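---------- Forwarded message ----------

FYI, see the Aspartate carbamoyltransferase record below. Original note from H. follows.
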Amino acid sequence: MRHFISVNQLSVKEIHSLLDTAESLRNENKKVNDQIFAANLFFEPSTRTKMSFIVAQRKLGLEVLDLHEDISSTRKGETLYDTAKTFESIGANLLIVRHHADTWFEDLQDQISIPIINGGAGKAEHPTQCLLDLLTLYQEFGRLRGLNVVIVGDIKHSRVARSNANALKRLGAKVSLCAAPGFEDHSLDFPYITIDEATKKCDALMLLRIQHERHTTNSFIDDYLKNYGLTKEREKRMQKHAIILHPAPINRGVEIDSDLVECERSRIFKQMNNGVFIRMAIMIELLQEWGLLNENIIEKRE
Ligand code: CP
């Protein structure tokens, strides 16, 4: 058979032969399977999280499955649950999911029998970003207890703010928030301070992206940097040791002056580098927990 275009081209004997071959492959697959498939299901745009997961997966020797949402059956109305079940059925061992719903994982985690990693949930959670931010702070200061961390920007729409504020508090950091009028979220129980107070007092200034896609107007943009962003003047007033973080992508000239993105205080690209290793660590932890980590992974890492 040089091409397979139609079932009509197969004889009855050939059909039976193919069924027999597939069945024996399925039985064989149950006995020996040292491949681990990680599936990246991103239903919202991503560069850093998705690509650093892929780098991390390849470094661990995993087989990478990458759903392209815009040309997937999601476009035919398939749900997240059915998509996840599909990947489980075809042999994925690990799912990385980003979805616009704040609580997409609530039902899924009980109904899917492979590990799931949250790559971003609506406005609610971005746990891998949180861990890479914590690692960046540890690298810089060697501790979190007592650090003045100010989270600045579009708090209302930020999953990073929600994950980071709570984790930092639990780890002993002193967390404050800073937001333009209308960008606050008072369900978060942290004090609000002004951008001028924030830049003067912080050890780490954790800037957030203005999430244009979650706003109905951007009429505030023209004066945003001057009124609420990190200008060069404000940066000069930061403490000598203070650092700048941002999860990115960055709106240059909006939440931060473009010239500061790679300034001496900036750890923005360091955060991205840390993302690879945090994601490797999380995947190793889960694969071990689920009894999926075999010698191959360790060997391939060495
Ligand atoms: N920080 C972050 O989540 O970036 P991406 O949206 O590009 O993944």
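H. also flagged this: The chain has two domains: 37-122+275-301, 127-266.
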